[in-house]
Recover the amino acids of this structure.
């Protein structure tokens, strides 16, 4: 084979890609990369959205648990507020709070000089559901609540109460319960009955931006006229009952 023919064949074997082939390869690679990125980005966003929803669901479940523990341990223990006025054991007529009540079971592992009964209040403000509690029951002018936001993005909150006859009231104490409570044994001899009377049940309804409408019903203990509520003797003088009597019996409350 002559030398010119060999050089021609070598040149044909050593020739590269054409411009069109290079552009086509780049386009295919870019399309594959873009598709892979979109799939990966969608997976990451779905994972982040799932984590956010799980966190919101966890917050909602914790809130329902806190409310359940509060209302299932309500006690017929009225208080004096910072102005010296009597406040019912459970009331929705406070102008600052949606619901205010006394509850049992406030643990005291450090043996602080306080009661095992806690005063709690719920507030709905700026689309937030907030829980307040006080370190003392009978408050003074400098008593400040400790607050925690339980839920955000709340559209509305409504509460109603079941009276002794099974009817529903929008406020508590209800005026219609005065005649009913006075007919119970010991009612006429117990001046604390009016402020310590409790509903049979409390229903709380939430309208949440994320989860929609949620309704919960909680049964409440009944007040027995003439029966004092035992409290811890570590309250440092803040355990006077609504009738003016003081109970200093030591009792382990769960």
């Amino acid at each position: 084979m002559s030398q010119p023919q060999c050089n021609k064949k070598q040149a044909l074997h050593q020739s590269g890609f054409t411009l069109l082939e290079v552009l086509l390869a780049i386009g295919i690679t870019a399309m594959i990369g873009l598709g892979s990125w979109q799939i990966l980005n969608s997976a990451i966003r779905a994972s982040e959205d799932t984590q956010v929803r799980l966190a919101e669901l966890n917050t909602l479940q914790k809130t329902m648990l806190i409310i359940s523990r509060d209302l299932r341990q309500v006690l017929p223990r009225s208080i004096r507020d910072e102005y010296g006025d009597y406040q019912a054991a459970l009331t929705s007529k406070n102008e600052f709070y949606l619901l205010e009540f006394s509850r049992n079971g406030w643990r005291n592992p450090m043996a602080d000089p306080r009661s095992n009964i806690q005063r709690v209040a719920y507030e709905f403000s700026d689309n937030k559901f907030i829980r307040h509690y006080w370190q003392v029951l009978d408050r003074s002018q400098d008593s400040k609540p400790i607050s925690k936001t339980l839920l955000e993005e709340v559209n509305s909150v409504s509460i109603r109460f079941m009276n002794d006859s099974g009817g529903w009231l929008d406020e508590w104490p209800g005026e219609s319960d005065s005649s009913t409570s006075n007919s119970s044994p010991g009612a006429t001899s117990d001046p604390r009955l009016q402020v310590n009377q409790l509903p049979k049940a409390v229903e709380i309804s939430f309208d949440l931006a994320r989860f929609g409408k949620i309704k919960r019903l909680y049964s409440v203990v009944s007040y027995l006229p003439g029966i004092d509520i035992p409290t811890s003797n570590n309250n440092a003088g803040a355990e006077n009952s609504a009738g003016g009597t003081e109970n200093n019996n030591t009792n382990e409350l769960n």
Summary: Residues 19-71 form the longest helix (53 residues). The chain has a mean pLDDT of 80.
